[in-house]
Amino acid sequence: MQCQTVLPGTECTFMSKNGCVFPGGSCQNIVEDCEGCEKIVESSIGKVCSVYPAPAKKWANGICNFATHAKIEIKVEDVKVNPLKASKKASGGKKK
């Protein structure tokens, strides 16, 4: 259904015939961590996320999975491989 509270005319999964079913009755403003994200839209109450109505909850446990401006750093550690086991694995373990 389309939003009737904060972003009128925008498709919203939290709207029902009885109004917004999200706790609090509407979307919440973005948090500081959201600044720079492409999913921020201007609404009647200020800046809100176009994807999730409670941005503070998305940032509570780390990086928001919808954030377009945050990059996740993946640390790759060098794995030591036993050369004997590697050669056995490469040969397929076949006996002659």
What do these coordinates show?
This protein is α+β, with helices and mostly antiparallel strands. The chain has a domain at 28-90. 15% of the residues lie in helices and 12% in strands. The chain is built from two helices and four strands, in the order ββββαα. It has a two-stranded antiparallel sheet. It has a two-stranded antiparallel ribbon with strand order 3-4. The longest helix has 9 residues, at 83-91. The chain is elongated.
Write the layout of secondary structure elements.
Layout: E1 15-16, E2 19-20, E3 40-43, E4 46-49, H1 55-59, H2 83-91
Antiparallel strand pairs: 1-2, 3-4
How many strands appear in the DSSP assignment?
4
Adjacency order of strands in the biggest sheet = 1-2
- Structural class by helix and strand composition: alpha+beta
Number of helices: 2
* Helical residue percent band: 10-25%
Q: Mean pLDDT, nearest integer?
A: 82
Q: Runs with pLDDT <50, length 5+?
A: none
General form? elongated
What fraction of residues sit in β-strands?
5-15%
Would you list the SSEs in sequence order as H and E? EEEEHH
Radius of gyration: 24 Å
What's the N-to-C terminus distance? 68 Å
Largest sheet, in brief, is: 2 strands, antiparallel
